[in-house]
């Protein structure tokens, strides 16, 4: 095999078509973060985006998109923004992983949402975790019956709040795949407020991330698109979501709601309606991503699996990187494994968010309030 390294924008149309064909041929790759369109958008905005093109004889056997940072540190494409990464190839393809890193000029590659079980990376997986999905292949009615079976009390409560929201605030209306940039701005403002309120770093403070979302929202094709959804009570938006889809799978990305309506649980009401409209649009699944949100347990009707791990070549850079990253990864795994710890961590971050908001409101305009180390 031969491996060449290019930027995604340098791929020709035949190479892009081959990427799409490989992705469609393997159900485990049915995720928009693995699509060539996402790689192309990232390449427009970030100088460190690369793709390894793997040639076997006269044909392309696979593609490996990644980010190459200083000192040969490799990261998945999109890094902390994405919920899936991996090798786009036939399922059985196995290549020498360290040879791949050598060709890509990487000392180390750290992953936490790798498609589980890929032969090239399987030996380097240190943990495999479920990512809950709403399985809509049998239709919405079948899925909602599973939700009812998972937790009839929760479903009954949410349906009650849904009716109460419509009765007290105005008839409910759901907009699927809204093209309106103003609606997107409303959602992103809610999300920024949520990040600050809960002590997380506001991702949208980075202009390139906002530009990426704008690109995803504007681009639409049969195989890839950004999907903006919004729930209204009367004419007032109360909860929304922006995610990406392939032809058959919608991936959760940025859900948020107006806290003025929090007593109605508008986020969960929105998720139920989003599933219904996604099924009507012909989608087979909504991927909610791994993570410690309790609502996912009773909305799920299936799981996918993603892996954490690390592969490196012997070097001082790899050793320093291991010292810096491994304790953090282990601590995060412990917290995610224990709901009680997750709730405590969440409360601490929310408390920090309230303190920070107070400090910022009392501080002069040129005062910088520092983020806590590792806040996400």
Automatic annotation (TrEMBL):
<dbReference type="Pfam" id="PF13480">
    <property type="entry name" value="Acetyltransf_6"/>
</dbReference>
<dbReference type="InterPro" id="IPR038740">
    <property type="entry name" value="BioF2-like_GNAT_dom"/>
</dbReference>
<protein>
    <submittedName>
        <fullName>CelD/BcsL family acetyltransferase involved in cellulose biosynthesis</fullName>
    </submittedName>
</protein>
<feature type="domain" description="BioF2-like acetyltransferase">
    <location>
        <begin position="154"/>
        <end position="296"/>
    </location>
</feature>
<dbReference type="InterPro" id="IPR016181">
    <property type="entry name" value="Acyl_CoA_acyltransferase"/>
</dbReference>
